[in-house]
Amino acid sequence: VKVKFLLAVHHAQASRPSRARLDSEACTMLFADKKALENNLQVSLIKIREKELDFYTRNCISIGTQAALLSGFAYAGIIQVDIPDSTPDPMKAAYLSVTAAAMAVELIALFNSTMCSMLGPGLALRGPDGSMHTAVDGMMVEYRVCFLFFVIGVVLFHFSALLFAWMEFAWPIALSMTTVLFVFMYGISVHFTRIYNKFQLRPGQMIDGRMVSPAEAAAVAGMQYVPAASQGGEATKVIYDTQGPTHEHSDEGLGYGQNYGHHGGGYNGGMR
Question: Shortest CA distance to 100 belongs to which of 82, 86, 79?
Answer without folding.
Answer: 79
